[in-house]
Structure formats: structure tokens, C-alpha cells
Amino acid sequence: xxxxxxxxxxxxxxxxxxxxxxxxxxxxxxxxxxxxxxxxxxxxxxxxxxxxxxxxxxxxxxxxxxxxxxxxxxxxxxxxxxxxxxxxxxxxxxxxxxxxxxxxxxxxxxxxxxxxxxxxxxxxxxxxxxxxxxxxxxxxxxxxxxxxxxxxxxxxxxxxxxxxxxxxxxxxxxxxxxxxxxxxxxxxxxxxxxxxxxxxxxxxxxxxxxxxxxxxxxxxxxxxxxxxxxxxxxxxxxxxxxxxxxxxxxxxxxxxxxxxxxxxxxxxxxxxxxxxxxxxxxxxxxxxxxxxxxxxxxxxxxxxxxxxxxxxxxxxxxxxxxxxxxxxxxxxxxxxxxxxxxxxxxxxxxxxxxxxxxxxxxxxxxxxxxxxxxxxxxxxxxxxxxxxxxxxxxxxxxxxxxxxxxxxxxxxxxxxxxxxxxxxxxxxxxxxxxxxxxxxxxxxxxxxxxxxxxxxxxxxxxxxxxxxxxxxxxxxxxxxxxxxxxxxxxxxxxxxxxxxxxxxxxxxxxxxxxxxxxxxxxxxxxxxxxxxxxxxxxxxxxxxxxxxxxxxxxxxxxxxxxxxxxxxxxxxxxxxxxxxxx
Length: 582
Fold this sequence. Notes:
The protein is of the alpha/beta class and about 575 residues long. It is built from 16 helices and 25 strands. The chain folds into three domains: about 10-135, Nuclear Transport Factor 2, Chain: A (Roll); about 160-305 and about 510-530 and about 545-575, FAD/NAD(P)-binding domain (3-Layer(bba) Sandwich); about 315-505, FAD/NAD(P)-binding domain (3-Layer(bba) Sandwich). The strands form six sheets. Strands 1, 2, 3, 4, 5, 6 and 7 form a seven-stranded mixed sheet that branches. A five-stranded parallel sheet has the order 10-9-8-14-25, with helices on both faces. A five-stranded parallel sheet has the order 15-24-16-17-20, with helices on one face.
């Protein structure tokens, strides 16, 4: 029995000892360690899946089933990591501890949260349990020592070898990563460490162009300490909010420092899978128009949540004789000084573009299509990242974040949204007076769950909301537009809203549309929905093997990609070693 009379390390060590014995041979003993309402999240360690199980019966059954093959053992408090401590998670007081263990295939880390039994406050049981794989040891040969480059003045030097390696004139990569933003770089860095030959391709002319070529004023909306890439943290001298060009430059440095293979000015035209050869045939179009066919074993689509721009069919818009752009085409505001701009859409992009245009001296009006969540970028929008300021290392914060099941994360975000609303009440009241339609997500679960389910529908206020409240940026409802004319929009009340520029900040189509375009309808149907939550508590077809062999997807924030690129890489390595199938 675990009791609060003991010290936290003793409590945790006792639990881990009971857990190790129970998963080996004692179903009844395992049941006694968990609450009825408990969660087990496994990230590859026992199941080779990213999966969450809820409820004691399901947790006990799942642990027993998978422990027979995985043979978890040597559970112990992880040394040199954050020690066991009392925390508040999802409104519940718990003892939280990081532990290490081994399996038949590798070495893992986990997090357990213990809370009192409802009938006996001194009896502590597991509320949540996380098991993750950190390293594969089965069938893995030790890495050879780094190659010493010859000092032969007539032989190839380091740069010659790097250029030859990255040219792929004599081989195909094992993994082709499509997209060279933070998702693609994180994935390639993880695979590099695992010794898997990987090539990144991106349509940009220069590494980092996916940030560099965006609008002039763009700055990240969350703080620097949350956004590190794997292996190479940002320097401590960096600003709290990273400017786009600084991040773009870091991407170039990252590729150079880690010796990642990266081809620029490449359009990925699509591919087909040969099930017998277990390889893809893909077509790449270079910037000079030449074609290269490759045959990688795996493709990782790292093009982000945003796929093909969503351009709605807007009646009578063809009458407008000015400039119409989708938000992804917008770059700068100087050309529109003194002119009239209409922004259709009130998400982050719409607000940021409106503010950029206003700052350049344009006359700006926003047209709201649907209700939108607004939260001040500081401090309200930073509330979900409080863990990363509590003191644990980045590695420990990432593991603790991974240990929170979706249902409990949702509960946490409902509470944080209420807190943010109270902090931002004056701003929200001002927006309501101006006619701005607000919402706070399903069940009030806030911006992060809006992002995880639909990829948008919110705005981090960095000043545009204040401009709307003050009447400096105009606001109409899209439904109030009767028709478009050559010179702008005619409202239903008879007024004409003049415009020289219309920006469609209307978001992007789902990744399913991109899959169908690049791989065909059959593959798209086989894969199914990507992003958002299905019947389980995990994102659909993200970071894990999909129903289409050899095809992976990675998307999300810098933090998400830093965390889950590790597990995506481990799955590919495990497939290469024959530990798991497709």
C-alpha cells in the first residue's frame, strides 16, 4: 500500500516496484494500483503505437496484453531528472514523478501521477501513467566512430564529401521529407541521429523562405523557450518573441550545423507506392524544370496543418476590378498606403494582415465570416505554457506535456480559457460593443483545441483588436455584404465600401485534399482524415504509421514537432530494423 506518510521518493519507488511485479505476473495486483477513472498513454514503448486507454479495466487489460511481449522491467525513479513533486494537473492535486524502465526492444521514460483513493485518503493510486520509448537497443549495432577525414591534399575534403552526400547521384534516400519548415527539420534531425539516410525537399529558393517571405511584421505568438528545435536550442540571448527573419536564418544554420541533406527549389509532384518492393516512386521537379525520380522507402509529409489554400466561391466577387489575394500570397503593405483594403476572415492571418496594412497607412475594414476567439498574446495566450517556466528542463517539460491525456488537457484548457476571459474582459467587452462575434471553442475549451480540431478560428491579439475597438480598423459582418462591384463591396443597407485590395484570409483545405492531389483518391481514402480527433484520444494519422504503408505526416507547433518527431523517427528506425511492420 502506498501512503502519504512516506516521503515522495519512497512513495514512488514503492509504486514502481509494485508496478513491475504486477505487469510481470499479477493481474489482481495491477488492478489495486489504479483508480477506476485512470489513464494509460503509451508512446511506442509497449504497443509500438501512440495510444491512450481510459478506465481501470481497459488499462489493466492493455498493460497485461502488451507486457507479455514488451517485457517492461527495471522501473525506477529517473536520476538527474526532475524529482517527484506535488503538482496541480487538470484541477487535481497529484504526486508527479518521472521514471525510467527497459523493455525487450529498448529504453524508456515515463510519468506517473498518484492521487488519494476516494475511500481512503492515505491510499495512493495511479491516476495517469505514461510510458514512452527513448531508445531502441534490440537488433541495433553500435554506431561506428566518426570518420576521420583524410589530410591528403589531393583527396576530397569535408566539403567535397558533404556535397557528394547531399547530391544523391548514386543512391536514393531511405526517407524523403516533403517540406523544410520546423516539422521537416525536426524530423530530419531525429532521423540523422538514428542513422537513417534522409533528404528534405522544399519549394523555397532558400532554406527558411517559408518564414522569410511572409509579411514584414510577422513575429511568433508564443515565447522563445517553448519553441526550441531538437538537438540545438536557441541561444539565451534571443528575444522573447522570435521575428520571422531570425527564425528563417536559424533554419539555415540548423541545416548547416547538423549536416542535414536539403534540396531547395523543388516541387514535389507526387508519387505511387510499390507494395511488393516496399518503395515509393516519386517525381521531383527542380527549379530549372528538370525532373528527378526517386524511390524512397518512406515519405514524411511535413507541409504543416495548412495544405492547399481554401478559396471560397464568393458570389459576384468576379465583378471586383481591384486586386484579390489569398492570405498566403500577401507579403507587404507599402504598396497599399492611402488605399482601401477589405480583409475577409478574422483569424490570426486576417488580423495580422489588417494591422500591417493599417500601420502602412491603408484604410482597412475586416469582414467577419464566423465567430472568433480573441485572447491577448500576453499574458493570456501564454497560460498554457506555464509548465515551461516552472523550472524543469525542456526535456522534462516535453515528457510531462506528453503525459497528459487529451481528456485531461481539455479540462485544463477549459479552466485556462475562463482565466483568460477574466483577464481580457475589458478588451472582449469593447469588441462586443463594436459588433465582433466572439466564441471560446467547443465547451469553452479555448484556442488550443480550436487549433487541434480545425487549425484556426482564433486570434492572438497583438494590437489589431485594440484598433477595432478604437474604430481605426473597420468591422462588418460578411453576411452584410450584398454583392461585389468593380470598386468594392455593396452592403445590404445600400452603402458602398470602397476597396482597392481584397485579401481572402479564409484558411486552408484539410490535408486530405493535398493527399488526394499528390497520391490519388485511393491513397487518400485509405489514409482517411488527418488532424483532429477521431473516436480515440489521439490526433488522427499524425506522427505515426498510417493505413498507407511508408507514409507519415507531421504537423503542428514547434513544440509539437520537437516532441513527436522523436517518436516518428523511432518508428521508421524500428521498421528498418524489422521490429515492426507497416
